[in-house]
Give the backbone structure.
Amino acid sequence: MSAEKRRAPVVLADLLTNRIAATGDEPAYRGYDGVRWRTWNWHAVGREVARARAAFAASGLRPGERVGICAYNAPEWVFCDLAALSLGLVVVPLFFNDRPENIAYCLKDADVRWLFVDRPPAAEILDCGLQGIVSFKETRGVASFRDWLAAADGQRAAPANHSADDLATIVYTSGTTGRPKGVMLTHRNILANVGALLAAIPEIAVEAHRFLSFLPLSHMLERTVGEYVAIAMGAETVFSRGITELAEDLKTASPTILVSVPKIFERTYGKMQEELKAKPRRQRLVARASALGLAVYEGRARGLERFSARLADAFVGRAVRRRLGGKLRYVFLGGAPAAPRLLGFFTGLGVRFVQGYGLTETSPVISCNHLSDRDLASVGQPLANVAVRFVNGEICVKGPSVMSGYWRLPEATAQAVDAEGYFHTGDLGRLEGGLLYLTGRAKDIIVLSNGEKVAPADVEQAILQDPVFEHALVVGEGRGALALLAVSDTANEDELRDRANDQLHAFPGYTRIRHVLRVSGPWTIENGFLTPTLKIRRQWIEERYAAAIDALYASPGGDAKGHSAR
C-alpha cells in the first residue's frame, strides 16, 4: 500500500478511501431491500459512493450547501452521507419519525437544498422550498434514488478539495425544551473522536466484527460509532429492518457489536423478568448465574465460584446471549445513564458493555469504559484528547471534538462554550480514580422544600427495574415530597407507589414517593413524550400535567393517595 493511501484521514471521506485500499474485498454492508438481503464489499461501496457523488454534482450542488437525510438506516443512507461529505457538502441528518413540524423547522433553519427520504413527505416538508426530494424507496410522487443515480451514470465527479476544519454536518439536538439547536461539527471534530475511541479500546479494534445498526443514524452516537468507527475498523454492518424486527434481525445477523441505548436492555430485562415469574426455580437459576458471572468479571470469584460460573454460563448465559444473536461480544452503550444493577445483570451473563458518556456537541463521546474498567457505575475514562474540569459540579470539557458552535446562534454558542474553550455540558459529575461518574443534570436537580436535593434520573432508573412501570417521571421541585408520573397497566396507584418505593430501599428516606399520578400511555417519539434518543421530554411533560400535579399535592390525604390522569 502506498504512503498516500496509508495517510491518516484528514476529512471523513478518507476513511472509506483507506478502507478500500486495505480490505476492499471484505464484506462491508448488508441491507434488506424489501424482498431479499443484499450485500456490498468495500469496493462496491466505493462504486456506489462515486455514483452518488456524480449525481450530487449533476444536481448543481456546491460545497457548503446543505443536504438533508430523513430516512431509516440503510446502506443508501451511508452512500449518500459519504458522497455528500466527499464533495464538501454539509449533511443534515433528521430523525425519520420526528413530528413533521419539527423536521420542517430544521429544514428551513439549515436552508437544506436537497432532501433524501424513504416515505412520502408530509405537507409541512413539501412547503420548505427544497430544490429536490429523492426517496431511497419507491415512493409515489418522489424521484427514486435509483433513478437519481441512473441519470448521472457515465459522469464522474472528483472529491472536492476541502479541509479538516470545513463544516461536515449540522445535527439538531433533540429539543427536550424549546426549539432544537443545530450543532455544527467539522471533519476534524468527528475524526478526532473516532481516533480517540479507537485508541481507548485497541483490543476491540484489531478483531473482526459485525455491527447491527438499529439506532437512528441521525443520532450522533450511531453515526460516529456505527458508521465512521465501523469503517475505520473494517467491520461489516448489517442494517436492521426496524425496531419491530430487531429480535429476528439479531438472530439473522449474529452481530458481535451493538450500539445501543439503555432503554433497549431495560425492555429486554423487563420481558425476561415477566417470563420468569411463572418459573421461580428458573428465575433463581438465572439470578445466580448472573451473580456468579459478575463476581468473575469483577475479580471477586475464587476457586469453586469460578468453576460454578463456567457451568452457569454453559446452561444459562449462552441461552440469554442467543436472544441477542449468539455471538454478541460488546455493546457500546450511551445516550443516557444506565442503572448499574441492569448492567450488572447482563454483564454477569456474558455481555460486555463499553458504556460511554457524551453529547452531540462533543461529536459525541467524552468518556468511555476501557475493557479493564470494572466499575459499572462509572461512564469510563475521559478520552485522551479530552480535558475535563468542574464548575460548581458541572462537567466542562475541552478538546478537538467540541463543536464549532450552534448554527446561526452566536449567543447560545457563547453561553455554552466559555472564553477558554470549555463546553459546559449541563451534567453534574465527579472524577475519581480516573473514572467519570454522573450525578445528575444541573437543570433537572429537584430541590425539595426542606433543602434536600434529588437527582430524578437516578430515582427513575431504580423504579424502572420493576417491569410494571413502562415509563416513570419524578417531580417535586419546591414541594415537601416526591411525586411520580407513571405509565403502567396496573391501575392501583397505591400498589404503584409501594412498588416504586420497594425499588428505592437503598436511597435516602427523602427520595420516597408519596404521590402517584398514573397517566395513560404509551409515551412515544411520535406523540411528543420522548426525544428521538428515547429520553423523556421532562419539562414538556411536567407542563402538560401541571394542573394534575398541583391537584395531587393539594388534595386532602394526598400524602398517601395516588390519582389517575387520562
Q: What stands out?
A: The longest strand covers residues 423-432. Confidence is low (pLDDT under 50) at residues 1-5, 558-566. The chain has three domains: 3-258, 261-441, 446-565. Residues 189 and 485 are 39 Å apart (CA to CA).
